[in-house]
Amino acid sequence: MKITINNQKIAVKEGQTILEVARQNKIDIPTLCYHSDLTIQASCRLCLVEIEGRPGLYTSCSTKVEDGLVVKTESENIARARKINLELLFAQHREECADCIYHGRCQALKICRQLKGKINGFTDRKKDKPTFKFGPALEFDSSKCIDCRLCVDMCHRQGIDFLELEYHDGLYEVVPSKDPKKDCIYCGQCLMHCPVGAFEGVGEYEAIEKPLQEEGKTVVFQFAPSIRTTIGEEFGMPYGSVVTGHLFAGIHALGAKAFDTSIAADVTTVEEAKELVERLEKKEPLPMFTSCCPGWVKFCEFYYPEFIPNLTTVRSPHMIMGGLIKTYWAQKEGLDPKNIIVVSIMPCLAKKYDITREELWLDKGALKPVDYVLTTREFAQLLRKRKINLKEVKPEEPVAPFPLPTGAGVIYGASGGVMESALRTAYEKITGKTLPQLEFKNVRGLQGVKKAVVDIAGRKLKVAVVNGTINARKILAELKIDPHAYDYIEVMACLGGCIGGGGQPVPVNEEIRQQRAASLYQVDEKSVIRCAHNSPFVKNLYQEYFNNQDNIKKICHTTFKKKNKEVNR
Ligand code: SF4
Ligand code: SF4
Ligand code: SF4
Ligand code: FES
């Protein structure tokens, strides 16, 4: 089939939309409610085009190609209609541009400038709309919502259905569910797919200003594995830019200490591989699930508590790192843990919830391993406020006793990374031999479910890697039929794992997630040490601090319990 767009003849495939064809051919059509991850909503009506021989205007995101179609993407009529539609959208959206997650990158404002439209062309209709808080993790301000329904679709695609539509004053509006059987898991995927910033993480960065200036306080920032390939976007760098050294420099410029959470990911790997080997020997409880994703943990505890015994008891890397900072490092530095403030820079909104879980606190609740969680976006905001441009700082190195992590600790940021790291270590633990090939390529990639059989000394280990909680539902349904279908399962709540986490820069799509993940694997490839158990830091830690089993238990392990609904309205 062939169609013509703006006098250009283009070969097309059946089932494609005009918008898809236009984008593939670099023809610009403005869109707001279209997202390549989601169902077409066709609600913003900005992507209008004309079709020769047909009256009226058509939404290009929802109109399929037909052989011989002649399409125009620009005309006076189109511009007028787009402008009115955009101004009507602005009448629904209460602007708070300075604090918006799209600040400097707002698609709506960009289109408005192109069309010479007005933000206040029509009176705002949504002055007194409610704000909802979803636990300690995120907030939804319905006065900013333009009713595109992408968030509802996203939450549904996560298999959660916590966001619903309710009829008010002639419109269906987004609300959190009152159903006691539905709860938010704080994955933040709704936020990542909202085109106008109606969702935001619960802000913590202002609270950090005080300890940063307080005499006698030591502020330590740690950054998650994925941050090194995502935060550059906040400073105009290309997708997938690796900025590890810039992060150290940026944190030091704030007057704080900087540690790489990937160092503790190596500890998580060693403990998790140990637990896997023990469970395989005892043959229970299997399969073992990873538990470093708090979105997935909340999902399991709320929706599938019967699988709680399958979660590994090993803590997530930032909690282990926080624990080490306030005990091991504090002792080395002669610091009182009470005067240390640990801030985790995370890709994640669920980690804001994670740090409120009392079962993760130390010394019977007296000591919190992590005091604050900042998302990648929030940390970038803090740096900008202090006029620190990550793109311009001179990269710096980590300092002792927390040196560079192994490649295994870095790939935690992509779906399959935790599994691959643990397999590298488990293989050598079981066989006592060096792995002939370090890469487990069949657990890599952005597909929702990846399955593999891994041969370890003749034992066939059945593994699955899942991203997106709807895919977790599929695997759990399989396990209900055949409890022995798998031995080890990695689950990450967010699309693509943490590189697509709810705290990462916006916008995001498959291509962007791909570039972020690819860069993490490149860091691994270039790393001198690529197995967690070979890390000199890890070896030293086990010799001088983890030679005491109580320390391992206290810093590295936790418990889980069934959860009731936490987010009400
Ligand atoms: S954070 Fe996740 S579970 Fe909660 S409303 Fe958003 S998409 Fe749904
Ligand atoms: S909150 Fe955002 S994604 Fe959800 S309906 Fe409103 S504008 Fe669309
Ligand atoms: S996948 Fe990563 S970013 Fe998303 S909820 Fe889990 S830990 Fe957080
Ligand atoms: S992008 Fe097509 S109607 Fe919104």
From TrEMBL:
One of its GO terms (molecular function) is ferredoxin hydrogenase activity. Gene3D superfamilies: 3.10.20.740, 3.30.70.20, 3.40.50.1780, Fe-only Hydrogenase (Larger Subunit), Chain L, domain 3, Iron hydrogenase, small subunit. InterPro entries: 2Fe-2S_ferredoxin-like_sf, 2Fe-2S_ferredoxin-type, 4Fe4S_Fe-S-bd, 4Fe4S_Fe_S_CS, Cytosolic_Fe-S_CAF, Fe_hydrogenase, Fe_hydrogenase_lsu_C, Fe_hydrogenase_ssu. Residues 136-165, 174-204 form the 4Fe-4S ferredoxin-type domain. Keywords: Iron, Iron-sulfur, Metal-binding. One of its GO terms (biological process) is ATP synthesis coupled electron transport. One of its GO terms (cellular component) is membrane. It comes from the Bacteria. PROSITE patterns: 2FE2S_FER_2, 4FE4S_FER_1, 4FE4S_FER_2, COMPLEX1_75K_1. SMART domains: Fe_hyd_SSU. Residues 1-77 form the 2Fe-2S ferredoxin-type domain. SUPFAM superfamilies: 2Fe-2S ferredoxin-like, 4Fe-4S ferredoxins, Fe-only hydrogenase. NCBIfam families: FeFe_hydrog_A (TIGR02512). This is Ferredoxin. It comes from Candidatus Kerfeldbacteria bacterium RIFOXYB2_FULL_38_14.
